[in-house]
């Protein structure tokens, strides 16, 4: 276990300095700085929350004004603090307190998990869950509302969201309280599936989820704070020191999340850098003022299309086996154009969800009409999963960051082959985007996917699931190196948020966010080993220990 000499034990504490001191020297390991001018170092000094010096032992020691506590790295690898450039913090925090349905291998197992949850949470109160997917089921038929009602053991409002949050399964009382049961309304950008009896079947898609979710009582402020504290501590244990908190379309979770985060910041209990995006509809009122070191305002989030997993991403060509399905527009093109103009007119950067190749191109056309942002936070395209050849160079030319989630690649392998066939060559084009000069910013989309950043690094480097490496890389020409993937988890997101001069690299003057790892990622990637099992020994944010293994 790593220990400081000449100082305290260094247990995590709210805004406490590492080892209980204002300064710290790290030496005896390998430090990947992420700084192109000096990518590797042997020692690093922290003072007052910032990097004081980094380099060889002698030059770092000379920069220290006096003796200070020393952390012996014992040969371990140090990297800058990792970012999750795209997650839904409120959803992730609350989902950790809901029924977990990840890993269900068939409809029967899904129903059994619901049955067990109802027994462990007896009563008639609402029940919420998340995480199921039928993509790899041999029989992809979903349970209907009657089967869900039986699993619940009676009349009970319940909603179980798919892993991508783009569809959900609801019980009869939940459909009834949302007004969906007898005569499901027409909802732009969404649908309520109707069964043979003319009533809602239980499956609700895309924008129709909004009113359904709103019919459930929201959590209280104290519950949200507690859930966020737990979730952020979990992220620290994964080496994540900064996140870009994304919004859901037409939902009200943004103000709830920011209010709870601001309260934690005031109490000096927030030790994760949170860049909080705005939903487009929030531009109708005064903008929130967030100027703290750990909490600041981000981009305006817009949505073009659906998701690949739900076969609602907007494509130029139909999905295989579904000649009438090219996906949907979550925001109709005229409204999307208006949203771009509104956000840009207020001087705010845009963060637009676009997955299908038609949605990506349309959004790039809209970016063409906007002024370049110069030294400000650049515009971003979230996901950018399907890129036609003629659009590859446009993100770099327009200064648009590609905010991508490598773990989705692992989830989409079989589904993509079945739905797109040879068009899978257009998916997750990490190498092609880098060669075109695009800035990559990697995230997880949690709770849609596992926030483990080492699983994401594995996906970007190896392009294959960890448990079946013997099959070789999927579309291997799009693999990238470990160092390139690390930059997409450190300096890339920092640049995407306009913070590239303050965080994301281990260089003098930068905020002291770093992670000490239990495995040498660089050597492991070089040897073709799986990377998903690497974990932090120590996580430091702003010069404070926020996670220490064994504490």
Tags for this model:
single chain, 551 residues, alpha/beta, Urease, subunit C, domain 1, Diaminopimelate Epimerase, Chain A, domain 1, eight-stranded parallel beta sheet, 17 helices, 22% strand
Task: Provide an overview of this structure.
The protein has 551 residues and is α/β, with parallel strands linked by helices. Among the domains are: 1-81 and 504-551, Urease, subunit C, domain 1 (Roll); 99-214, Roll (Diaminopimelate Epimerase, Chain A, domain 1), CATH 3.10.310.70. The chain has 17 helices and 23 strands. The strands form 3 sheets. Strands 1, 2, 3, 4, 5, 6, 21, 22 and 23 form a 9-stranded mixed β-sheet that branches. An 8-stranded parallel β-sheet has the order 7-14-15-16-17-18-19-20. A 6-stranded mixed β-sheet has the order 8-9-10-11-13-12. α3 runs parallel beside α4, α7 packs across α8 (253-266) and α12 crosses α14. The radius of gyration is 23 Å and the shape is globular. The termini are close together. The model is unreliable at 16-20 (pLDDT under 50).
Any low-confidence stretches, pLDDT <50, length ≥5? 16-20
Overall mean pLDDT stands at 91
Q: What is the CATH topology descriptor of the domain at 1-81 and 504-551?
A: Urease, subunit C, domain 1
Give the radius of gyration.
23 Å
The largest sheet is: 9 strands, mixed
Going by CATH, the homologous superfamily of the domain at 1-81 and 504-551 would be Urease, subunit C, domain 1
- Helicity level: 25-40%
Q: In what range is the share of β-strand residues?
A: 15-25%
The shape, in one word, is globular
Distance between the termini: 10 Å
Number of strands: 23
């Amino acid at each position: 276990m790593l220990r400081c000499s000449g100082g305290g034990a260094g247990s995590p504490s709210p805004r406490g300095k590492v080892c209980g001191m204002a300064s710290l020297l790290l030496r005896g390991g390998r430090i990947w700085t992420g700084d192109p001018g000096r990518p590797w170092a042997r020692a690093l000094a922290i003072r007052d929350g910032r990097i004081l010096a980094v380099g060889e032992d002698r030059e770092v020691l000379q920069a220290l004004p006096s003796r200070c506590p020393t952390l012996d790295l014992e040969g371990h690898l140090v990297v800058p603090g990792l970012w999750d450039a795209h997650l839904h913090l409120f959803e992730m925090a609350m989902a950790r307190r809901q029924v977990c349905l990840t890993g269900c291998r068939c409809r029967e197992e899904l129903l059994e998990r619901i049955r067990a949850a109802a027994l462990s949470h007896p009563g008639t109160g609402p029940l919420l869950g998340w995480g199921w997917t039928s993509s790899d089921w041999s029989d992809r038929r979903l349970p209907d509302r009657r089967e869900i009602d039986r699993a619940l053991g009676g009349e009970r409002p319940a909603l179980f969201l798919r892993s991508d949050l783009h569809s959900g399964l609801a019980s009869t009382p939940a459909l009834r309280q949302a007004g969906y049961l007898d005569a499901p309304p027409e909802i732009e950008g969404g649908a309520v599936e109707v069964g043979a009896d003319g009533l809602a079947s239980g499956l609700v898609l895309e924008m129709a989820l909004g009113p359904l979710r709103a019919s459930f009582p929201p959590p209280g402020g104290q519950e949200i704070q507690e859930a966020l504290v737990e979730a952020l501590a979990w992220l620290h244990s994964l080496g994540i020191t900064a996140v870009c908190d994304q919004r859901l379309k037409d939902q009200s979770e943004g103000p709830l999340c920011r209010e709870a985060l601001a309260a934690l910041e005031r109490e000096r209990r927030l030790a994760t850098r949170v860049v909080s995006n705005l939903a487009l509809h929030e531009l109708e009122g005064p903008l929130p003022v967030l100027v703290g070191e750990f909490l600041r305002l981000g981009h305006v989030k817009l949505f073009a299309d659906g998701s690949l997993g739900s076969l609602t991403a907007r494509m130029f060509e139909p999905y295989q086996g579904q000649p009438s399905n090219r996906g949907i527009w979550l925001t109709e093109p005229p409204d999307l154009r208006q949203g771009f103009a509104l956000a840009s007119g207020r001087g705010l950067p845009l963060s637009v969800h676009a997955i299908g190749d038609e949605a990506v191109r349309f959004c790039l056309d809209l970016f063409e009409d906007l002024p370049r942002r110069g030294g400000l936070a650049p515009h971003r395209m979230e996901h950018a999963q399907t890129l036609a050849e003629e659009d590859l160079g446009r993100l770099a030319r327009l200064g648009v960051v590609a905010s991508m989630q490598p773990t989705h690649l692992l989830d989409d392998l079989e589904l993509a082959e079945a739905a797109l066939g040879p068009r899978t060559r257009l998916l997750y084009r990490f190498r092609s985007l880098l060669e075109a000069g695009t800035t990559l910013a990697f995230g997880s989309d949690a709770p849609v996917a596992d926030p483990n950043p080492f699983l994401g690094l594995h996906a970007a480097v190896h392009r294959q699931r960890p448990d079946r490496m013997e099959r070789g890389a999927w579309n291997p020409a799009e693999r990238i190196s470990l160092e390139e993937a690390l930059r997409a988890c450190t300096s890339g997101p920092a640049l995407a948020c306009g913070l590239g001069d303050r965080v994301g690299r281990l260089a003098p003057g930068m905020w002291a966010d770093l992670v000490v790892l239990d495995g040498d990622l660089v050597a492991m990637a070089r040897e073709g080993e799986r990377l998903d099992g690497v974990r932090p020994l120590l996580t430091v944010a702003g010069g404070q220990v926020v996670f220490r293994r064994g504490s």
